[in-house]
Amino acid sequence: MKDILLQYMTRFTSLSKEEQQAVADELPIREYKKGDLLLQQGDMTAVKCYFVLKGCVRQYFIDESGKEITVQFFTEKQAILISNEQKQEAPAAYSFICMEDSVLLVGSTDSERTMYKKYPQLETMVRKMMEISMGEMLDEHAIFISSSPEERYKALLQNRPQLISRVPQHQLASYLGVTPESLSRIKKRLSKDT
Fold this sequence. Notes:
CATH topology of the domain at 2-120: Jelly Rolls
Distance between the termini: 38 Å
Strand order of the largest sheet: 1-8-3-6
Number of strands: 8
């Protein structure tokens, strides 16, 4: 499993192979079962980060009317940052749940600081990874707000087609900002066009 991390790290760092291996060896890997919560909305947040080696994690919240709203899905080679540093002592705004049996690297800000002291280049690598991740999320959000539901679904098919078979349709619909019935109509319409 750590081979996935090492391949990913190679793209972002000038750490030697030995240093990369040492970093990977220090990071704890945890296995989670489908349905395991990493964090529940309303709990006090601990600043943690995860890197998905295998599996799928859904980020969602429950709105005032009791409706679940899916915000994001994290899959292989994606980082999840759970941070509430700006609002310390505030309850978590989101829940994070494993949609499949998952294998995640688990980090904390304390362990990160220790590793940054040992491997100064690691901080640059993590910053690059986060910049790319934030850029992708901003691009995805810009496309989302400027497109129709059908265009959103087409973008999902193009950019993250594996989600179609990995998550329930009602959660996918929530993620796309439509009802499950509307998503069914979109799928039906698109299947006729092909």
